[in-house]
Amino acid sequence: MHDLRHFYASLLIKHRENVKTVQKRLGHAKPSITLDTYTHLWPDDEDTTRAAVEEVLGDVPPLCPPRRAYGT
């Protein structure tokens, strides 16, 4: 049962549900319980920013070739 509950929570989080919604769906008394248990599943700020940029730019090819390491 625990695995099914964790799977359900991970689906909600993957589909960008907020902490309050996940808390209510799982029946936690407080959002802090949800965060203590599932915080590792929410994207961090860097992941969120990267996803937003990719969504706006899509598959735009880079304008400059990647830099080479010094001495190669």
TrEMBL record:
One GO-annotated biological process of the protein: DNA recombination
UniProt entry tagged with the keyword Transmembrane helix: no
A Pfam family annotated for this UniProt entry: Phage_integrase
Gene3D superfamilies: Intergrase catalytic core (1.10.443.10)
GO MF terms held by the record: DNA binding
Domain of life according to the entry: Bacteria
Record's keyword terms, sorted: DNA recombination
Positions of the Tyr recombinase domain: 1-54
Protein name: Tyr recombinase domain-containing protein
